[in-house]
């Protein structure tokens, strides 16, 4: 079971890596177009430059089910899986099954293609046609029938239920779920755990629900900004909590964090994992709760501070980010043990001792 889950995660992460440029580009096009007063236009005679940006971004977002399905199938079955995977994504869009339908369709197409390649025997003269014609066509036929007549309706029900659940949350529930999404979304600083809620946020964005995406964007910036504020606060209260190496790492993590890259916190967290994860997760949760409860949403799934102007409530976004980061900073100063100057420099000295070769003699 563990091996199977690992394979599923690997295929899904491969597809996400291919999909992200489309998501970011489409989201930014929508944001820029909206800021310029653009609208979605279907009549070329009414097209303006702002509307061209908005319309193109919306078209790009409409490709997400096909992208995720196509590249999941590609990861599973290589080139023969791409075409049927994209077609499963098109079926998901047609049915209104959205992002979830694209994921299921991609896995369906990929594994059908693998089975056909493994078990279908053809004459020698037809072997060259297998990857280009036979496998893609048979996979599309079988997968299409399953999506249309078996899986389509249940996936639509699940997608609709999730959408209605998010839309129907009251204020207190938004605080709770905003906290949960924010906390889990940055618990391992861009690792496998955080990708699960972040993927859900991307799927909801495709359904036109932008608030979870706002949590995702803001919460990803809280850990690096929070540890930076923690460093500054520790100097104010004269409590040394970071080693010299961690201070240097923070100088790198902060600008990365502004761009929504939270992995820069990992070297800092590894030296005091429990206290750091508790501090950053609570800060991310507070950020998410504030953003969600006040209805802030992001039409762009990535970009850090540079997409805050495109959010539905930029002032709320800034306040949520600052308050969440401040909570992280205060918790770090309260929870982490104070270090002496010798302890702060100890790690660097140990490294130097490990690479000291002066005692080696050659007889």
From TrEMBL:
Q: Which parts of the sequence belong to the PTS EIIC type-2 domain?
A: 8-345
Q: What NCBIfam families does this protein map onto?
A: PTS_IIC_fructo (TIGR01427)
Q: Where in the cell is it found?
A: Cell inner membrane
Please tell me the species this chain comes from: Enterococcus cecorum
Q: How does it sit in the membrane?
A: Multi-pass membrane protein
A matching Pfam family: PTS_EIIC
Q: Name one GO cellular component term.
A: plasma membrane
| Single GO BP term | phosphoenolpyruvate-dependent sugar phosphotransferase system
- What's this protein's name? PTS fructose transporter subunit IIC
TM ranges are 12-32, 52-74, 86-114, 134-163, 175-194, 214-233, 273-295, 315-335
Molecular function (GO) terms for this protein are: carbohydrate:proton symporter activity; protein-N(PI)-phosphohistidine-sugar phosphotransferase activity; protein-phosphocysteine-sugar phosphotransferase activity
Keywords from the named record: Cell membrane, Membrane, Phosphotransferase system, Sugar transport, Transmembrane, Transmembrane helix, Transport
């Amino acid at each position: 079971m563990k091996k199977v889950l690992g394979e599923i995660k690997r295929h899904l992460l491969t597809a996400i890596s291919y999909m992200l440029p489309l998501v970011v580009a489409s989201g930014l096009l929508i944001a820029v177009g909206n800021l310029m007063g653009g609208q979605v236009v279907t009549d070329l005679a009414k097209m303006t430059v702002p509307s061209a940006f908005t319309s193109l971004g919306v078209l790009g977002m409409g490709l997400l089910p096909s992208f995720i399905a196509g590249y999941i199938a590609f990861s599973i079955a290589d080139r023969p899986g791409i075409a049927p995977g994209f077609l499963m994504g098109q079926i998901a869009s047609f049915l209104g099954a959205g992002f979830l339908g694209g994921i299921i369709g991609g896995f369906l197409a990929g594994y059908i293609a693998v089975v056909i390649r493994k078990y279908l025997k053809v004459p020698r003269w037809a072997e060259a046609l297998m990857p280009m014609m036979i496998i893609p066509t048979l996979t599309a036929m079988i997968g299409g029938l399953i999506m249309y007549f078996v899986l389509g309706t249940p996936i639509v029900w699940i997608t609709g239920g999730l959408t209605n659940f998010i839309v129907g949350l009251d204020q207190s529930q938004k605080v709770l779920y905003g906290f949960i999404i924010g906390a889990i979304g940055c618990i391992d600083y861009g690792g496998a755990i955080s990708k699960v809620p972040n993927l859900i946020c991307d799927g909801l964005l495709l359904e036109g629900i932008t608030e979870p995406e706002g949590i995702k964007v803001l919460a990803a910036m809280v850990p690096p900004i929070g540890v930076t504020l923690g460093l500054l606060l520790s100097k104010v209260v004269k409590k040394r909590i970071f080693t010299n190496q961690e201070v240097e790492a923070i100088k790198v993590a902060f600008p990365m964090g502004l761009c929504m890259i939270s992995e820069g916190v990992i070297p800092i967290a590894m030296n005091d994992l429990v206290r750091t994860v508790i501090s950053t997760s609570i800060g991310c949760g507070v950020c998410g709760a504030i953003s969600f409860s006040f209805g802030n949403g992001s039409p762009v799934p990535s970009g850090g501070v540079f997409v805050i102007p495109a959010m539905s409530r930029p002032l709320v976004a800034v306040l949520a980010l600052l308050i969440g980061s401040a909570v992280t900073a205060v918790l770090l100063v309260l929870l982490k043990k104070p270090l002496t100057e010798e302890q702060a420099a100890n790690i660097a000295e140990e490294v130097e001792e490990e690479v000291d070769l002066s005692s080696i003699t050659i007889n």
